[in-house]
TrEMBL record:
It comes from Mycoplana dimorpha. This is LysR family transcriptional regulator. Residues 7-64 form the HTH lysR-type domain. One of its GO terms (biological process) is DNA-templated transcription. GO terms for molecular function: DNA-binding transcription factor activity; sequence-specific DNA binding. It holds the Pfam family HTH_1. Belongs to the LysR transcriptional regulatory family. Keywords: DNA-binding, Transcription, Transcription regulation.
Length: 314
């Protein structure tokens, strides 16, 4: 394997990541470096190879005629390497590695995992917070929890909970709301990354009226919840996000109208991997915990969302 001495390993990793993920930004996110660093690593590795792996176009990085077969072999090699490392890391059944979206971890899971630990003190948790669906066949992640349509390729997705949206606000603001029609005069806290809009919810509620007036717009749903807790306005929330605040009475759901978004929460695992006992125990515990937390805040049967609306964030 003397040939490998001629090429820096980080450069090959950068090339493989860009080829597999399709962009410098996605590769940088996975590798934990800047876009500029990935670009420089790719350029340096191409220089060491003496061939261009990618063509730089207005639409991004595209494999060259040389790069296409080279990337396939490179991907296969790194996948085998990752599987070898992952098989060693997964030997410890006392550690459960879970990949979750940051907002799920901070707003729901972190408030409840002590109950799992009390029931199963022999299992330690390692929580990896990311919005990306990790490569479960080539990592040491035992279980991912994701929100979406549930049809991700190359994984096993097990439905847990439908995603529903409903208005929440402080008890003080709720005192000014006698019917959904009163929302038109209320300030709204908006999640800029959420495609599920007030217009969709109002239609489901049978209301032909303008949406609440936007007060503040945030790019993060967790910040939106903080703004709602501070009394800044009414927020379209979902049970996993707001259940603890509703349970504590810091927020209330003023109307018995919930709208399904067409998305759901899923347990996601590698399709060809035997499910260890620690994963089964966690899944059983989480199903019960979700039933308790969501059941405590449910006020009415969900209303079906028009098929044109969908939710992609978590």
């Amino acid at each position: 394997m003397k040939e490998l001495n001629a090429i820096h390993l980080n450069g090959l990793r950068a090339i493989e990541a860009v080829g597999r993920l399709g962009s410098l930004q996605a590769a940088a996110d996975e590798l934990g470096v800047t876009v500029g660093a990935v670009s420089q690593q790719v350029i340096k590795a191409e220089g060491q190879l003496g061939r261009a792996v990618f063509e730089r176009t207005a639409r991004g990085m595209r494999p060259t005629s040389f790069g296409e077969p080279f990337l396939q072999k490179l991907n296969a090699g790194f996948r085998e390497l990752a599987q070898a490392v992952g098989s060693v890391l997964r030997r410890d059944d006392a550690i459960l590695v879970i990949s979750v979206a940051p907002i799920f971890a901070s707003r729901w899971l972190i408030h409840r995992i002590h109950h799992f630990s009390a029931a199963h003190p022999e299992i330690s948790l390692r929580i990896e917070s990311t919005t990306a669906l990790v490569d479960l066949t080539a990592s040491d992640v035992d279980l991912a929890i994701r929100i979406g349509p549930g049809n991700w390729p190359g994984v096993k997705a097990e439905f847990v909970l439908p995603q529903e949206m409903f208005p929440v606000c402080t008890p003080e603001l709720a005192g000014r709301l006698r019917s959904p029609a009163d929302l038109v005069d209320m300030p709204a806290v908006i999640d800029a990354n959420d495609p599920f809009t007030w217009d969709v919810w109002l239609r489901a509620a049978g209301l032909d009226q303008p949406a609440p007036k936007t007060r503040h717009v945030f790019s993060d749903a967790s910040l939106c919840l903080d703004a709602a807790l501070a009394g800044q306005g009414v927020l379209l929330a979902w049970p996993i996000l707001a259940s603890w605040a509703l349970d504590e009475g810091r927020l209330v759901a003023p109307f018995d109208i919930r709208v399904k978004t067409g998305m759901g929460y899923y347990f996601v695992t590698a399709p060809d991997r035997r499910e260890p006992r620690k994963v089964m125990l966690f899944k059983d515990w989480m199903r019960r915990a979700i039933a308790e937390s969501v059941g405590g805040t449910a006020t009415a049967p969900a209303t079906a969302l028009p098929s044109s609306a969908s939710r992609t964030s978590s």
